UniProtKB/TrEMBL annotation:
Keywords: Coiled coil
Regions of compositional bias (Basic and acidic residues) in chain numbering: 164-173
Gene3D superfamilies per record: Arfaptin homology (AH) domain/BAR domain (1.20.1270.60)
F-BAR domain: residues covered: 1-294
Compositional bias per record (Low complexity), positions renumbered to this chain: 179-188
Species per Swiss-Prot/TrEMBL record: Pan troglodytes
UniProt cross-references to InterPro entries, sorted A to Z: AH/BAR_dom_sf, F_BAR_dom, FCH_dom, SLIT-ROBO_RhoGAP
Name of the protein described by the UniProt record: ARHGAP4 isoform 5
Residue span of region Disordered: 164-197
Pfam families recorded: FCH (PF00611)
Amino acid sequence: MRWQLSEQLRCLELQGELRRELLQELAEFMRRRAEVELEYSRGLEKLAERFSSRGGRLGSSREHQSFRKEPSLLSPLHCWAVLLQHTRQQSRESAALSEVLAGPLAQRLSHIAEDVGRLVKKSRDLEQQLQDELLEVVSELQTAKKTYQAYHMESVNAEAKLREAERQEEKRAGRSVPTTTAGATEAGPLRKSSLKKGGRLVEKRQAKFMEHKLKCTKARNEYLLSLASVNAAVSNYYLHDVLDLMDCCDTGFHLALGQVLRSYTAAESRTQASQVQGLGSLEEAVEALDPPGDKAKVLEVHATVFCPPLRFDYHPH
């Protein structure tokens, strides 16, 4: 039983240590993931700025700059502008996700780990106290058992001595039957004295036996009461106290962990929703590609270039 109680304490400590290690790993994961998201955000921002600020292959002439300033004039340039805008939005979302992961979520996990440590310590102290109380009543049971066994042995010995004295008394009584011989007449006073001594010895041993029997009965009753008390205490400890202590260790752990993970999934969902929205805008821009319209816009912007020249007039010779 002592081995079981010791293993229960060890199991409680191991369970708490496992939870603390899990929470520490999760917090470290959140911080590392935040670093990755922040680096990704910075990379996207640099990428978008790089292509937004340079002329590139689109050229740097005045006409090209005009189209770049008004990307809606040409549908391909509009697609390009939407793509860059989507990249910037991705950068902002990754930065926001990084802030959430490294801030509230990682801190919350660290706080939960501290709470788990305090709960495990309090639960362990309480379990140790309950075990000490249980072992105390078990020790009292062992004492009551030894006392009963000792009194029982004394009672058995006292009864044996009483029975022996009674047998000796019966023998003396059998030898004291009156006879007609002269020798028997002369030995009469001696036999009477012996019978009186034997009777007193029987009475003395009878009283001693009753005394030990009473002590044995009392010790037996105390032993039975202690036995019932210990069995009830053991049953209550194993069926109620241990389970209640496990519940104490679990207090708020699963709820708090679930809230953190739900916050994580919500942050990821917001990022994904923004991603889907940006891709939707890009898809709309792709669907809006309009070759005839682009041609008309080019002709409109460069009207002087594509304007038909004056008619050639007839000049006579």
